[in-house]
């Protein structure tokens, strides 16, 4: 039986992280090293972890962080390469020129473009890119941030080509003996189980999140429309377009989740966006009257920061060989690049990811397994495709980095292909690589310590028989306290993790094992509960201080974090309650027999 003292001691690292991050608004680069030290002290003095086990668990965390950063680097490199070439501006123009109606722009850029960027890059990138684009179109800075943050949430579970599921769910479950054994005994591999989780997470999102385009439009028109007579009527006027957009997104989104976690956000945005743009061009769902913000002189001071709406631009680009230019002050000149050419690297990325995940024997080969080709056995290790460390320091813990299988390699490859495709100059290439590299410093420090902390907590019971880990203790206590209502709060737990750490991936790493153990204790379907965790980790980004600060900085509005978080509590509560109700129905009525 778990004692109250054990629960309190196990919770200390997480509570400390929450207090420092949320209460004192410390950056993760300061808070997480301290939280890791505390987890180490609790593990050593209370859980009796030997030093070699603590070191091994921390090294597993470091290797996991490196793999995440490899993906992040590739995602950012491709994004900044397209920005430097002018291709990203051309993509933006393709959206913006379809309609001058602000509600339509919220749907096309705040929803479809933001979800696409989330699927390709993740890690707070969508709001930091889409918000200044909306500002450039004439949106109030605060409205631009709200629209971008709300719009991309449905895609966060699969952000950075599946990182929150692959790294946040699959890897921790695979490296924890109790969960790995339970999953194997149930007839799954951990990889197959993570796909199941991805499917259920997509199901939650599809049922609850298809209204998010309408939600984003409603937030913008109500809070940034006529201040004397606030009304949701302008949102209801475009409800057919908004709901059609949500459905057009979630159908390919849900279907692609059946294959792999890399694809839902990308496919939903690309296929759904193409369908909606085609419908608008054909004259369907076009608003009868264009809606716009009040006159500029009527805007409250807190709507706008140091950058005047309509004068902002995306990150500066230089002139390519024949596709775009910059003005003397760094502003963009409209690119003449074709939309297909602008989208080509991302289209190629999707093709490569599909091929390397569904065409045998490529998946096994790229993950370091021996495969037979034309009668010859080939192992990827011989080509340095993977780096592994088995039995670290003589413990039972293993660490590894899949350099080629994970999307980071294919993102970098597509960025390199983009250089001759766009005829980029050496200066442009250097700027893209430098920008991507600079963005990795703070995440590296934060991720190394947060994942090391989580691994120490996860492995705190692995060194001896009969010792349960800190995560297991917390899961058991929560399950006992909440009881049958646990499915209703599962997403809220994930949201708490993301709000603290600013990352769905980190939330999943921190609470994925927790949720699995809690579901097992209550004899609930684990896929459904861990799937709700993956959704909660997405919606927590609405109030994650890291993401909010980053987005506000891009529109010159730093200092308005409280307003953004207060407004974003509205969609967060809707999403959390909606997923909670669906999880209860799934767990007790429709699918109680799942593992």
UniProtKB/TrEMBL annotation:
<feature type="transmembrane region" description="Helical">
    <location>
        <begin position="444"/>
        <end position="464"/>
    </location>
</feature>
<feature type="transmembrane region" description="Helical">
    <location>
        <begin position="34"/>
        <end position="55"/>
    </location>
</feature>
<dbReference type="Pfam" id="PF02652">
    <property type="entry name" value="Lactate_perm"/>
</dbReference>
<keyword id="KW-1133">Transmembrane helix</keyword>
<feature type="transmembrane region" description="Helical">
    <location>
        <begin position="204"/>
        <end position="224"/>
    </location>
</feature>
<keyword id="KW-0813">Transport</keyword>
<keyword id="KW-0812">Transmembrane</keyword>
<protein>
    <submittedName>
        <fullName>L-lactate permease</fullName>
    </submittedName>
</protein>
<dbReference type="GO" id="GO:0015295">
    <property type="term" value="F:solute:proton symporter activity"/>
</dbReference>
<dbReference type="InterPro" id="IPR003804">
    <property type="entry name" value="Lactate_perm"/>
</dbReference>
<feature type="transmembrane region" description="Helical">
    <location>
        <begin position="7"/>
        <end position="28"/>
    </location>
</feature>
<dbReference type="GO" id="GO:0015129">
    <property type="term" value="F:lactate transmembrane transporter activity"/>
</dbReference>
<feature type="transmembrane region" description="Helical">
    <location>
        <begin position="572"/>
        <end position="591"/>
    </location>
</feature>
<keyword id="KW-0472">Membrane</keyword>
<feature type="transmembrane region" description="Helical">
    <location>
        <begin position="133"/>
        <end position="155"/>
    </location>
</feature>
<feature type="transmembrane region" description="Helical">
    <location>
        <begin position="342"/>
        <end position="359"/>
    </location>
</feature>
<keyword id="KW-1003">Cell membrane</keyword>
<feature type="transmembrane region" description="Helical">
    <location>
        <begin position="267"/>
        <end position="286"/>
    </location>
</feature>
<feature type="transmembrane region" description="Helical">
    <location>
        <begin position="62"/>
        <end position="83"/>
    </location>
</feature>
<feature type="transmembrane region" description="Helical">
    <location>
        <begin position="484"/>
        <end position="502"/>
    </location>
</feature>
<dbReference type="GO" id="GO:0005886">
    <property type="term" value="C:plasma membrane"/>
</dbReference>
<feature type="transmembrane region" description="Helical">
    <location>
        <begin position="403"/>
        <end position="423"/>
    </location>
</feature>
<feature type="transmembrane region" description="Helical">
    <location>
        <begin position="103"/>
        <end position="121"/>
    </location>
</feature>
<feature type="transmembrane region" description="Helical">
    <location>
        <begin position="236"/>
        <end position="255"/>
    </location>
</feature>
């Amino acid at each position: 039986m778990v004692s109250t003292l054990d629960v309190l001691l196990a919770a200390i690292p997480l509570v400390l992280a929450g207090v420092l991050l949320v209460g004192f608004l410390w950056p993760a680069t300061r808070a997480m090293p301290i939280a890791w030290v505390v987890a180490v002290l609790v593990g050593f003095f209370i859980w009796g972890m030997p030093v070699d086990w603590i070191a091994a668990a921390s090294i597993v965390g470091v290797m996991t962080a490196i793999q995440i950063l490899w993906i992040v680097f590739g995602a950012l490199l491709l994004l900044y390469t397209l920005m430097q070439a002018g291709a990203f501006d051309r993509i933006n123009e393709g959206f913006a020129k379809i309609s001058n109606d602000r509600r339509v722009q919220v749907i096309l850029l705040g929803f479809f473009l933001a979800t696409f960027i989330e699927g390709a890059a993740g890690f707070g990138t969508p709001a930091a890119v889409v918000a200044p684009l909306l500002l450039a179109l004439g949106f109030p800075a605060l409205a631009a941030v709200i629209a971008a943050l709300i719009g991309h949430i449905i895609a966060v579970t699969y952000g950075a080509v599946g990182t929150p599921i692959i790294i946040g769910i699959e890897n921790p479950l695979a490296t924890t003996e109790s969960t790995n054994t339970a999953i194997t005994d149930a007839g799954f591999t951990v990889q197959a189980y993570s796909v199941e989780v991805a499917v259920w997470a997509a199901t939650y999102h599809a049922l609850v999140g298809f209204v998010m385009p309408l939600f984003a439009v409603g937030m913008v028109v109500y809070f940034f429309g006529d201040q004397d007579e606030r009304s949701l009527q302008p949102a209801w006027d475009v409800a057919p377009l908004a709901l059609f957009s949500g459905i057009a997104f979630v159908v390919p989104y849900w279907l692609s989740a059946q294959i792999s976690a890399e694809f839902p956000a990308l496919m939903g945005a690309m296929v759904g966006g193409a369908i909606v743009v085609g419908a608008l061009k054909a004259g369907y769902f076009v608003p009868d009257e264009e809606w716009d913000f009040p006159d500029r002189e009527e805007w409250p001071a807190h709507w706008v920061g140091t950058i005047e709406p309509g004068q902002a631009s995306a990150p500066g680009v230089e002139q390519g060989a024949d596709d775009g230019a910059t003005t003397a002050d760094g502003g963009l000149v409209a690119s003449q690049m074709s939309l297909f050419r602008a989208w080509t690297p991302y289209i190629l990325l999707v093709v490569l990811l599909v091929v390397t995940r569904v065409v045998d024997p490529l998946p096994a080969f790229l993950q370091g397994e021996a495969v037979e080709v034309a009668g010859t056995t080939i192992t990827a290790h011989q080509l340095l495709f993977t780096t592994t460390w088995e039995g670290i320091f003589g413990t039972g813990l293993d660490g590894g980095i899949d350099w080629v299988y994970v999307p980071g390699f294919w993102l970098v490859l597509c960025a390199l292909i983009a250089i001759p495709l766009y005829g980029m100059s050496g200066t442009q290439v250097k700027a893209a690589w430098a920008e991507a590299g600079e963005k990795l410093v703070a995440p590296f420090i934060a991720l190394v310590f947060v994942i090391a902390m989580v691994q120490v907590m996860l492995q705190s019971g692995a060194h001896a028989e009969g010792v349960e880990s800190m995560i297991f203790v917390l899961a058991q206590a929560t399950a006992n306290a909440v009881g049958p209502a646990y499915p209703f709060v599962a997403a809220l737990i994930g949201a708490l993790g993301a709000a603290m750490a600013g990352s769905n991936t980190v939330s999943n790493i921190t609470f994925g094992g927790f949720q699995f153990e809690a579901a097992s204790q209550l004899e609930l379907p684990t896929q459904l509960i861990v799937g709700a965790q993956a959704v909660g980790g997405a919606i927590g980004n609405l109030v994650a201080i890291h993401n909010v600060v980053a987005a506000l900085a891009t529109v010159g509005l730093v200092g308005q974090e409280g307003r953004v978080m207060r407004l974003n509590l509205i969609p967060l509560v809707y999403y959390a309650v909606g997923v909670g109700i669906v999880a209860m129905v799934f767990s007790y009525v429709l699918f109680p027999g799942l593992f």
